[in-house]
């Protein structure tokens, strides 16, 4: 199973101290060079920069040899390369948060989830406390719909009973 991730989900998993759920859920994760560069960029939290400076064994970093030319110009370089890499690798899943990036990935037939979907899956598998992790996420700059969070928490509680 090949999983490709974009910058945002990795950043927020590091910020809420739940990065270990990626290998627990999926084994190896692949990111393009542009995502690595965004994680190393000036302005990224020290935690994020030091993590990517010495990436774990379960993280593969690959160049995008043939970029996709027909992606929306509004997408960032990391999103563009993540989608291109996922297409080239025939990825089972791509982890993206940006709505335009998600729509673009879906036009290529990619299976898409975001950070909330990853956290939800990890919660259902007992890898983390989902409500507590959502509370931690709410203390960051991550943007999401309060209605979506409320629905996910209700769904999670119903599945736990």
Summed up:
This protein is mainly alpha-helical and 161 residues long.
What this model shows, in words?
Helices cover 53% and strands 10% of the residues. By secondary structure, the chain is mainly alpha-helical. The protein has a single domain (3-116), classed as Rossmann fold (3-Layer(aba) Sandwich). It has a 3-stranded parallel β-sheet with strand order 1-4-5. Helix 7 runs antiparallel to helix 8 (130-137). The radius of gyration is 15 Å and the shape is globular. The two termini are 30 Å apart. The mean pLDDT is 95.
Q: Could you give the distance between the termini? A: 30 Å
CATH architecture: 3-Layer(aba) Sandwich
**Widest sheet: strand order?**
1-4-5
- Low confidence ranges: none
Number of helices: 9
Radius of gyration: 15 Å
Give the number of DSSP strands. 5
Report mean pLDDT, rounded to a whole number: 95
Instruction: Spell out the helices and strands N to C.
Output: EHHEHHEHEHEHHH
The overall number of domains is 1
Structural class of the helices, strands and pairings? mainly alpha
């Amino acid at each position: 199973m090949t999983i490709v991730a974009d910058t945002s989900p990795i950043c927020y998993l590091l910020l809420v101290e739940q990065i270990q759920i990626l290998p627990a859920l999926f084994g190896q994760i692949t990111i393009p060079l542009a995502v690595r560069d965004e994680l190393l960029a000036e302005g990224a939290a020290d935690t994020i920069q030091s993590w990517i400076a010495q990436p774990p064994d379960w993280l593969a970093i690959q160049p995008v040899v043939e970029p996709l030319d027909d992606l929306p110009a509004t997408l960032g370089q990391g999103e563009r390369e993540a989608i291109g890499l996922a297409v080239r690798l025939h990825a089972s899943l791509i982890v993206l948060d940006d709505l335009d990036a998600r729509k673009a990935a879906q036009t290529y037939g990619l299976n898409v989830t975001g950070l909330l979907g990853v956290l939800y899956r990890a919660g259902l598998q007992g890898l983390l406390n989902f409500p507590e992790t959502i509370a931690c996420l709410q203390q960051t700059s991550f943007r999401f719909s309060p209605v979506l969070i409320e629905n996910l928490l209700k769904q999670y509680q119903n599945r736990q009973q």
